[in-house]
User: Which sequence fits this backbone?
């Protein structure tokens, strides 16, 4: 097992290098650069722009810049953001906490609810409950996440039950720890609900289908035939195998943790990574973009690895070599 | 065994299996209606989608009346405008009363009837004396008098000017108190705005100016009866020039309000208006062209890509297969929406709408082809081993012919289902990009772009009808999902019986 993990991690290194280089080249190939937005500004003289270009290192050859960034990145220095004029690592670090709070909550919520409801629907297939859940799932699959966000925002604005944006209240700093926690929870309710509902619906359908497939397998019939209690048949035999495709799916969703909530972050003014990366892309804030690209790639690799390990733990038929 | 089964063709069998799906059939009908809407957008829209009317910023859906003075009539609307009250500074929508027939009792007791268009009567104007007064220490003081000439009154506001000769509006709103305190604190020696106990506006009808045969006639007297202008709603009305099916200029539209005297306050917004006073319904109808076509075109290109890549790599195998599939995996491994934003963001942001449209179609298809091509490859790999392919090879057909005539047609079933289930992804993709301001640009409309206007909390609470385009996205996506689901069942050989 350890050998397998080690091998996967070693393979990941060239993969990450290629992805970071690709992102860098795409950004370079795109017309214009960070300073374009200042070109129309009459208060910026040509000389100032030239000086800025030099200061930001945009006058150097792209390859030189890439390797400079890379040698820094290896030592933990990911360069400076052009726009914020601050180290990229600090910027991202500040935002990662906000995004992780939101996306991990909704990830946990959607998985627990999705798997539970999916299992329930599969066990009670074609019952009224199953039909209601089906309609519910289809509706939430069809609602675009930003529309769901807007609807919840409308609800918040109309009723005043929830804050209409941001992550903390103005007087957050004067609160006790318990109050702070409640305040954060209160701000998080709507964005987390929007994210959870969206992904839960898909997971539920997936789980239902996969469990139904497994329940038709011969070994389930066999287990039932030899008189095994239904509870054990379902939860020990069927579930373990039904969850298999879901785990691969989990690997993918881990990679989406940082960026997946872009719309919701935008709508609820949540100070997270999604918005940071989006703005960086629009402004062509080079190092911020590559670093966040690198982080997503790392998450993708880690997510897939975690999924593979979990798969081996859950499914007895899978052997890691 | 049902006797029919022997005589039905495969197409009929599939259709019969499809009809068993109630939801699928319903969804298909919805889709057909939506696409017809896109096709006949010009005919369906009462207004030009780009036409602005700043008097109607965030106008709510226009109220349709069915009674006039207590009697049932044909449906009609009233002129309306966004009105900022000069006293309370509140912005509201008010409907307007334009008189068209007046019965006036003059000082000497004679009654005269004037009706627009009859006896040479051309227009009515009303000279109104406006008096502002404030209440201090329980006593009313008139502070400002100004005459005004107007040709309309506002419902529920100063319509009493017409039927009583005097209208009085009293308020204790904080804004009014503050404004009047600022202006008159010195004159009345006020110390705080609460000293202004109330503010009132009284409007008194002074005289009526009637333009008759080109001459003006001033009449003093009391209005004893009047009729006001109503604007009937009609089917098949002629208004703005649209292009039927992109080709034939046509002024005919399905419905609209008969604006017979070109009153600029008259609008018929069934779904309200946006920031620029553009008709939300017309824009939704026109936006459907973009939102609905992008899915179809995108899927078409994706499938073409997938067929070429998947077909070739499955049929030839070896190094080609390896290269194609590794490339497909790289594209699949990047989260879709991120790849989309990235591709979009690195390309110039200020393109004309038509180019953006093409660009988005391209980006969406570029992201979508990888997954489909892998499945096609898998199918081709298995079809390749079947006897009829061997037979085709044996009779000496070229590789290309075997692939296009015998192998790929066998993937059609999968492709049709895949396409219907994939289209929602494209619609959502375009909507998302436009919502973020990276897609279709103003003044063109797409459902996502229209929702972008509703991002602001203050806008949503004031103009919640701006959320309607989201409902259209929802319905379309849901319908495609149901149709796809029903198709999958119908095309499944086991369901054909």
Assistant:
């Amino acid at each position: 097992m350890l050998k397998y993990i080690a091998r996967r991690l070693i393979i990941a290194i060239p993969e990450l290098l290629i992805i970071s280089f690709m992102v860098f080249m795409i950004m370079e190939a795109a017309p214009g650069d960070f300073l374009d937005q200042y070109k129309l500004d009459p208060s910026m003289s040509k000389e100032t722009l030239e000086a800025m270009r030099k200061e930001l290192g945009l006058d150097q050859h792209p390859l030189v810049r890439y390797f400079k960034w890379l040698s820094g990145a290896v030592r933990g220095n990911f360069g400076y953001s052009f726009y914020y004029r601050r180290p990229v690592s600090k910027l991202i670090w500040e935002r990662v906490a906000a995004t992780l709070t939101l996306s991990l909550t909704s990830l946990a919520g959607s998985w627990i609810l999705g798997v539970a409801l999916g299992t329930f629907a599969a066990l009670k297939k074609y019952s009224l409950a199953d039909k209601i859940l089906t309609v519910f799932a289809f509706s939430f699959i069809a609602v675009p996440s930003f529309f769901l966000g807007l609807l919840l925002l409308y609800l918040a604005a109309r009723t005043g039950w929830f804050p209409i944006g941001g992550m903390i209240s103005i007087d957050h700093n004067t609160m006790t720890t318990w109050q702070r926690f409640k305040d954060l929870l209160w701000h998080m309710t709507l964005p987390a609900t929007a994210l959870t509902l969206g992904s839960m619906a898909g997971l539920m359908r997936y789980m239902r289908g996969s469990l139904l497939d497994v329940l038709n397998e011969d070994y389930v019939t066999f287990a039932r035939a030899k008189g095994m209690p239904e509870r054990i048949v379902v939860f020990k035999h069927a579930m373990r195998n039904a969850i298999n495709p879901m785990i691969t799916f989990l690997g993918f969703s881990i990679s989406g943790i940082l960026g997946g909530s872009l719309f919701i972050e935008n709508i609820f003014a949540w100070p997270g990574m999604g918005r940071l990366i989006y703005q960086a892309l629009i402004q062509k804030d080079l190092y911020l973009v590559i670093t966040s690209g690198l982080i997503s790639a790392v998450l993708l690799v880690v997510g897939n690895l975690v999924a593979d390990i979990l798969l081996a733990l859950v499914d007895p038929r899978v052997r890691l070599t | 065994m049902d006797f029919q089964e022997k005589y039905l063709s495969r197409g009929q069998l599939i259709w019969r299996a499809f009809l068993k799906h109630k939801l699928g059939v319903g969804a298909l009908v919805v889709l057909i209606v939506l696409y017809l809407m896109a096709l006949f957008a010009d005919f369906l829209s009462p207004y030009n989608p780009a036409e602005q009317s700043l008097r109607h910023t965030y106008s709510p859906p226009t109220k349709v009346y069915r009674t006039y003075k207590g009697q049932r009539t044909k449906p009609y609307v009233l002129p309306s405008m966004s009105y900022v009250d000069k006293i309370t500074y509140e912005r509201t929508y008010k409907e307007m009363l334009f008189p068209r027939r007046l019965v006036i009792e003059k000082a000497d007791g004679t009654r005269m009837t004037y009706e627009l268009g009859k006896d040479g009567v051309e227009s009515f104007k009303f000279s109104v004396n406006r008096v502002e007064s404030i209440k201090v220490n329980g006593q009313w003081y008139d502070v400002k008098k100004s005459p005004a000439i107007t040709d309309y009154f506002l419902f529920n506001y100063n319509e009493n000017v017409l039927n009583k000769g005097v209208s009085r509006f009293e308020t204790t709103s904080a804004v009014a108190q503050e404004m009047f305190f600022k202006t008159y604190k010195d004159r009345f020696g006020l110390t705080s705005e609460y000293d202004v106990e109330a503010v009132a506006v009284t409007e008194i009808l002074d005289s009526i100016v009637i333009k008759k045969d080109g001459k003006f006639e001033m009449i003093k007297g009391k209005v004893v009866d009047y009729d006001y202008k109503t604007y009937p709603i009609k089917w098949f009305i002629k208004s703005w020039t649209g292009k039927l099916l992109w080709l034939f200029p046509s002024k005919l539209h399905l419905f609209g309000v008969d604006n017979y005297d070109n009153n600029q306050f008259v609008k018929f917004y069934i779904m309200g208006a946006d920031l620029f006073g553009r008709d939300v319904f017309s824009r939704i109808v026109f936006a459907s062209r973009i939102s609905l076509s992008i899915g179809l075109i995108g899927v078409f290109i994706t499938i073409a890509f997938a067929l070429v890549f998947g077909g070739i790599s499955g049929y030839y195998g070896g190094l080609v297969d390896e290269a194609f599939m590794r490339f497909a995996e790289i594209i699949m491994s990047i989260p879709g929406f991120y790849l989309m934003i990235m591709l979009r963001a690195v390309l110039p942001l200020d393109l004309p709408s038509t180019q953006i449209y093409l660009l988005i179609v391209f980006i969406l298809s570029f992201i979508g082809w990888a997954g489909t091509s892998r499945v096609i490859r898998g199918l081709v790999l298995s079809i390749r081993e079947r006897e009829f392919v061997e037979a085709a090879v044996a009779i000496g057909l070229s590789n290309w012919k075997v692939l296009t005539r015998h192998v790929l047609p066998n993937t059609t079933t999968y492709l049709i289902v895949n396409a219907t289930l994939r289209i929602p992804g494209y619609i959502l993709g375009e909507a998302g990009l436009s919502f973020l301001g990276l897609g279709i640009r103003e003044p063109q409309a797409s459902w996502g772009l229209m929702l972008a206007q509703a991002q602001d909390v203050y806008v949503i609470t004031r103009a919640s009808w701006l959320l309607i385009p989201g409902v259209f996205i929802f319905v379309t996506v849901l319908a495609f999902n149901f149709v796809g689901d029903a198709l999958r069942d119908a095309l499944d050989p086991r369901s054909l019986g």
Remarks:
- The first helix of chain B runs from residue 4 to 7.
- The longest strand of chain B covers residues 121-136.
